[in-house]
Amino acid sequence: MRCRIIYNEDVYNQASASLNGPELPSTRRKGFLTEHAAPFSAFLTDSFGRQHNYLRISLTEKCNLRCQYCMPEEGVQLTPKSELLTTQEIITLARLFVKEGVDKIRLTGGEPLIRPDVVDIVAQLYKLEGLQTIAVTTNGINLARLLPRLKEAGLDAINISLDTLVPAKFEFIVRRKGFHKVMEGINKAVELGYNPVKVNCVVMRGLNEDELLDFVALTKNQPLDVRFIEYMPFDGNKWNFKKMVSYKEMLDTVRQRWPDLEKLPCEASSTAKAYKVPDFQGQISFITSMSEHFCGSCNRLRITADGNLKVCLFGNSEVSLRDHLRSGASEDELVQIIGEAVGRKKKQHAGMFNISQMKNRPMILIGG
User: What does the alpha-carbon distance between residue 107 and residue 255 come to, in Å, rounded to a whole number?
Assistant: First the structure.
């Protein structure tokens, strides 16, 4: 992970000049920039004081898998290519958000690694001053092949989706083959030094909740963070309450096997409740979006592949940044539009039962 600091250029230049030199000595410079870091953008701060420094950008609506919880069985109507964000538009918007205080960008999809220029996008994002972390969420099918180039381009963190350790069940859940490619991708990430390698597992009753302990066991000898995600409702995924396995139920199951399971500290804005089996190299986490939401500390914004800003994953309110960008909106106008959208963000989502009745996009058209 890189350390990049947003600072007030004028203050720094004035301080440098006062020392009768072109710049502060390197050791003093680092401390000075930390001390004089620019205040966080008012445009990315909502009416509840939440500062949104984390942006998720969907690179494509397409995917090479058909996961049951993500894509409707009948598929989705894809947006025409001309209406999707171009690479330059993605970088333009990313630069704007980073300038306002975003320090983490996650690339999602669809499946982001099927976009032909994904390595180039990572390399261009890496050049953005102030951006500390570039991450990707992937299904892992193309990961082993692309990861060396992605790492060289500047990729800092990886989340890999894997909902079962049984190859036949994998094919049932994702409606495609590819289990061994995903495992190869996980192993390649470990080999290249990513630590932790995050493994996302959506837990669904009657399908894979019987594998919880097997997933925990994966963390014994590898630097994995297995993240158990509560099943969430989106258009077309046939969600119902009975399929959802709650965080507390999962935690009880794990504790029966490992009663000395330790809770780990986490950042205020973290979506995950983290735990560790003593002496295990890795850890596990629980994403409790349904049973114990974390809306109060949410710091995330999303841009869909067709250029819409979503301030809440479960909200159906969207603003087209693409349309404003293509109509020639200035940077100041775009920031104003973003700020107004962030300002309208609600205190919390509507709750699992209401969400399941609301009109929203299928997950694949939002971007994890």
Answer: 34
Look at the block and give the residue holding tokens 């509840």. Answer: 48
The residue ranges of the chain whose pLDDT is under 70 are: 1-38, 67-75, 232-241, 293-294, 314-316, 349-368
φ, ψ for residue 286, nearest 5 deg:
-125, 130
Angle between helices 331-343 and 87-100 (to 10 degrees): 70
CB count in 10 Å sphere of residue 86: 15
Q: At what angle do helices 179-191 and 143-153 cross, to 10 degrees?
A: 30
Half-sphere exposure of 83 toward its Cβ, with a 13 Å CA cutoff?
8
For the record, the structure tokens of 254 come out as 């794990």
Residue 299 CA: distances (Å) to CA of 116, 133, 260, 271, 312: 29, 14, 32, 10, 10
Q: How many CA atoms lie within 13 A of 313 on its CB side?
A: 23
Which domains occur in the chain, in start order?
Answer: 50-366 (3.20.20.70)
- Dihedral angle sign, alpha carbons of residues 327, 333, 334, 336: negative
Total residue count of the chain as it appears in this document:
368
Quote the CA–CA distance of 112 and 63 in Å, as a whole number.
8
Would you list the DSSP string of 304-326?
-TTSEEESSTT----EEHHHHHH
Whether the pTM exceeds 0.70: the reply is yes
Report CA-CA distances (Å) from 59 to 189, 321, 329.
21, 15, 22
